[in-house]
């Protein structure tokens, strides 16, 4: 029996970008000590207050089927939060609770695209993006965001990708603050992107899971711009802002009629989230902005460590880290690809980072460092990374 093309073509015959991560995990499992700076996983666990709320809810009996679209209380709290942050009137009818941001991205594209439609995404991108779009039945088409533009996509490049798509284009996926580059899209950039979406009649799907980790500038959701609320689907999550990665709580914000249709998809796909986890998420949101600032603080601090170390040498260049929990480092002066450098770093120094090529061709010759170990350990690992880069660049010569 043959499997469907939908499932076998998720990775388009290539790697899913996680090969080095898996290699590092195998080394760790075999007893080899590795400093793992690969994925965006906090070095703290979920706050005990949130776990206590989860336990109380479970032991209190909230273990049966919960409302598929999310509990009334959680949808209302998310709507209140989004309205306060964006300035856009938001009601529970604009909110669908989903099992994490990843599920939200898949479901948003299922809502936006017919099978075979083209769906645009920005390169560099989070490693799952093209596979997610293909899994939803769309043709995934990259729009390059170049270093000279701060890794922010340009309207002309989006238009060119639409013109070259060879068929209907239904959506554009953006991510600000961006993983892996750390770019934060300002109002002018979002206005240009939004104008293209209006002119070419695209859904604008905005991945905002890092909205609480902005180090320069300010986060702005495209939904807050005139004319874009009715064509925007915004994906959010508890994972990064509340250190709840394993709880798998996310949401989609969109027009009420879109949320009704997405609830139909959820009914036939996930049948909702466990009620006790939703109660824990509600408790976490009610801890407020002070708590979220505490979760974000280590990454702001470690960003400064990375910037200081990179500034003290001349081989590796750091892409401006405006937001998110990573440092994207340009290692092209070594003469190696991001993949080759990451392999050498793992083999020689037992430090695991993600190759830039895992995030698209626009990030080739870079590596992404997750700022996810305690400060002294991170500083030591970065110093060893920079020393290796210097050694390789010296061997390469002028």
From TrEMBL:
Gene3D superfamilies in the record: Type I PLP-dependent aspartate aminotransferase-like (Major domain)
Keywords in alphabetical order: Aminotransferase, Pyridoxal phosphate, Transferase
Cofactors required: pyridoxal 5'-phosphate
InterPro entries on file: Aminotransferase_I/II_large, AspAT/PAT-like, NHTrfase_class1_PyrdxlP-BS, PyrdxlP-dep_Trfase, PyrdxlP-dep_Trfase_major
E.C. designation(s): 2.6.1.-
Key word Transferase present: yes
Catalytic activity field: L-aspartate + 2-oxoglutarate = oxaloacetate + L-glutamate
GO terms of biological process kind: amino acid metabolic process
An example Gene Ontology molecular-function term: L-aspartate:2-oxoglutarate aminotransferase activity
Domain Aminotransferase class I/classII large residue range list: 34-385
Pfam families: Aminotran_1_2
Residue spans crossing the bilayer: none
Entry similarity comment: Belongs to the class-I pyridoxal-phosphate-dependent aminotransferase family.
PANTHER family per the UniProt record, alphabetical: ASPARTATE AMINOTRANSFERASE
Protein name as catalogued: Aminotransferase
